[in-house]
Design goal:
There is one protein chain. By secondary structure, this protein is of the alpha+beta class. It contains 20 helices and 15 strands. The chain folds into five domains: 256 residues, Rhopdopsin 7-helix transmembrane proteins; 117 residues, Beta-Lactamase (2-Layer Sandwich); 99 residues, 2-Layer Sandwich (Beta-Lactamase), CATH 3.30.450.20; 70 residues, Single alpha-helices involved in coiled-coils or other helix-helix interfaces; 130 residues, Heat Shock Protein 90. It has a five-stranded antiparallel sheet. A hairpin with a 5-residue loop joins strand 8 and strand 9.
Length: 715
């Protein structure tokens, strides 16, 4: 309905109400038998006009709500009942027949308020029963009584037979039924009020609670009518007074709502430009007088709402007590949502005004909410990056251009045993972390802003020093100041391995030189001497071959024996360099040869599926050979156990004896050379030799990746 059409409708109903007033005055002033007093006329007009005026105001205020029309219905029912004093029989009959309709219309108004519609089937049934009782009761009385309550009135048009007893019975029965019906309605209104929220009670109070009081007195008057007419009249008068106050209570509620709408302007003043979403929410709670109001702002990046704490907010969709009112910009974009008590829907003007004020207030706060959400996200990212930096295995330390510490990560703090506090920050980095021996050189590198990689000694948490490789990188901090970031790591283990590698290479060279000297000595003292003797014998035999053939033959026989001995010594020497049986027949036969030559009984166990890589077999052979040689020389053992087995991607060699123990690989070149040989294949050699408990040599070598073997003369 357009505004113009609605205005015409309201004017028409207002004119009808004025016509009812005029007709009532004419009828009452022209009555020959029941002319009311001036006070009664004034009361009748006040009641009728108050309901009519209030109804027109409510209709204009909320045309979609039937409360205004129901107020008008009560007003017209009241005016119809006042026609019962008319001189004309038809008008008199209409007035008498509709006298109780005002009660039914008021019950309808009370049960439908504040929404204007009957919410349940039970409400509709009670209202229907009320209208039926109001019409049937009066019509039945008119059938059996020509002019009730008026001996001089005209005979009503419904009169059939004068039966005062039947009329009295109908009146009593209808009074009892009306009392019961009204009592039920009063109970429903009281229960509805008690179950309502504080906001709903405030909205319900002007008509619902006041109407319940009026109906309660009216029900009491119906009940007293069967006992004492005087008490009934008093209770009816009180009920009329309370009923008359209902429109004024409703107007007071409208005035309160209007004043609350005026408080919306104060809301704009309270919610300043820099106000937070929480402060805006507090302002809405004051304006709506609803402490449960919740305000959430729309954030485009999240495609949803966030509450004043910056958390995601879900708009309730199936809450019976609270509803959501969307706040949108003039272009229709989402700005916010207000979750409030459902009863505030019956104060739509106040709700609309608050929504407009919230739109104006939140329009400037929307960017602030989005900024806060972004700041929270940035803070989370910052916290995450801080945790990553603290958990990183590398060292991080931020210093200013003069070398003073600003902050550093937990890895550096734990490695150097330094606490990140105000006492540490501001000190020079070389005084905090660097060992005194390298502090001066480190300081020169930092102040020179040399971006290359350096390596210096840092203090360690255990009181010693660690080798640290580091670089210094210039960056700008959040304030735009240039800082230097030291990144590095503990390379002590790498340095130790490098030193060990250099020492092992030195040992390999020394072992190779020693082996060459041994070979030279063995050749000089053994096979070389025999070959020299053989050369001299051959020359002597040549000189005597013609002169003394028998002597030459004897010399040649001795030379043959010397030659055989020389060949045997050369074979032994060659076997020491590299066992031919290992290449020809494999690891197990080669180990069996070592076992046969051992002076200590050996128990051999080989558990292999096939041949191993050549470098691995050579290493195993020399581990067993050197270990058996050490057992024979130093262990004073009775038995030795040799076990070789493949385990996954590695092979394990174990040589254990029951000798005196006490072997130390650091004291002899043999075990140290074996360790070098095994480590050259990415393996590990462990010697366990507690005093008096025997010796156990355990070597583990991987099979997946085998490096190039060291020379066979290295150990």
């Amino acid at each position: 309905m357009s505004w113009f059409t609605r205005r015409r409708t309201l004017v028409a109903w207002g004119a009808a109400a004025l016509a009812g007033v005029v007709v009532t005055l004419i009828v009452q002033l022209g009555s020959h038998h029941m002319r009311p007093t001036a006070v009664e006329i004034a009361v009748d007009l006040v009641v009728g006009l108050s309901f009519a005026t209030t109804g027109l105001i409510a209709w204009a205020r909320r045309p979609e709500n039937n409360t205004g029309r129901l107020l008008l219905a009560v007003s017209f029912a009241w005016f119809l009942g006042l026609l019962g004093v008319a001189n004309d029989a038809v008008v008199y009959t209409i007035g008498q027949a509709s006298g109780a309709l005002v009660l039914a219309a008021f019950v309808h108004l009370a049960l439908a308020y504040p929404g204007g519609r009957l919410p349940t089937r039970r409400d509709r049934a009670i209202v229907g029963a009320g209208y039926a009782l109001a019409v049937v009761a009066n019509v039945l009385i008119l059938v059996f009584e020509p002019h009730p309550d008026c001996s001089k009135c005209a005979t009503n048009v419904f009169f059939v037979s004068d039966r005062p007893g039947a009329a009295q019975a109908v009146d009593t029965a209808t009074n009892v039924a009306a009392a019961i019906l009204v009592a039920v309605v009063v109970g429903m209104l009281v229960a509805r009020y008690r179950a309502a929220t504080p906001v709903a009670r405030r909205v319900f109070r002007p008509i619902g609670l006041t109407g319940a009081a009026a109906l309660a007195f009216l029900a009491a008057s119906f009940a007293a009518g069967t006992i004492d007419q005087g008490v009934q009249d008093v209770l009816a008068a009180i009920a009329l007074i309370v009923l008359t106050s209902v429109p004024f209570w409703f107007l007071a509620g409208l005035l309160r709502s209007r004043l609350a709408r005026g408080g919306v302007a104060q809301l704009l003043l309270d919610v300043r430009e820099t106000a937070s979403l929480e402060e805006a929410q507090d302002g809405l709670r004051r304006a709506l007088n609803d402490p449960g109001v919740m305000l959430a702002a729309w954030v485009d990046e999240r495609h949803g709402y966030v509450d004043p704490n910056g958390k995601a907010f879900e708009v309730p969709s199936d809450d019976v007590e609270r509803v959501a009112t969307l706040v949108a910009s003039e272009s229709g974009d989402h700005l916010a949502v207000i979750v409030h008590d459902r009863a505030l829907l019956d104060e739509q003007e106040l709700l609309d005004a608050v929504a407009v004020a919230a739109r104006l207030a939140l329009h400037r706060n929307r960017l602030q909410a989005e900024l806060r959400a972004r700041l929270d996200e940035l803070q989370r990212e910052r916290d995450f990056m801080r945790d990553v930096v603290n958990a990183a295995p590398a060292f991080f330390c931020v210093v200013d251009l003069e070398g003073r510490v600003r902050r550093f990560n937990d890895t550096l703090a734990n490695a150097c045993g330094v606490v990140d506090d105000e006492a540490t920050r501001g000190r020079y980095i070389w005084d905090v972390f660097v060992a005194p021996v390298d502090a001066a050189v480190f300081r020169e590198c930092v102040l020179a802003e040399d971006g290359g990689e350096h390596q210096h000694l840092f203090r360690s948490a255990g009181g010693g020093v660690i080798d640290v490789a580091w670089v210094m990188t210039p960056i700008q901090d959040s304030e735009g100041l240039l800082r230097l970031v030291l990144t590095g790591g503990d390379v002590s283990e790498r340095v130790r391995h490098a030193d060990e590698l250099r020492r092992s290479r030195s040992r390999l060279v020394d072992a190779a030189d020693a082996e060459r000297r041994r070979l030279e000595r063995n050749l000089h003292d053994g096979a070389q001497q025999r070959l020299v003797s053989l050369s001299l014998a051959l020359r002597l035999a040549e000189s005597k071959l013609r002169a003394d053939p028998e002597a030459a033959s004897a010399i040649l026989g001795g030379a043959g024996e010397e030659l055989a001995l020389a060949l045997r010594e050369l074979r032994e020497l060659a076997r020491g360099l590299h066992p031919a049986i290992l290449t020809d027949r494999g690891l197990e036969p080669a180990l069996a040869t070592l076992v046969e030559r051992s002076v200590v009984p050996v128990e051999l166990e080989v558990d292999l599926d096939g041949r191993l890589p050549g470098p691995v077999e050579v290493a195993i052979f020399y581990v067993v050979s050197e270990s058996l040689a050490n057992v024979a020389k130093y262990a004073d053992a009775q038995t030795v156990a040799v076990r070789v087995a493949a385990s996954g991607d590695a092979v394990v060699v174990e040589v254990a004896d029951d000798g005196v123990g006490g072997a130390d690989e650091r004291q002899g070149s043999g075990l140290r050379g074996l360790s070098d040989r095994v480590e050259a294949l990415d393996g590990r050699l462990v010697v366990e030799s507690p005093a008096g408990a025997g010796t156990r040599v355990l070597a583990t070598m991987p099979l997946a990746r085998v490096r190039q073997p060291v020379p066979s003369d290295a150990g």
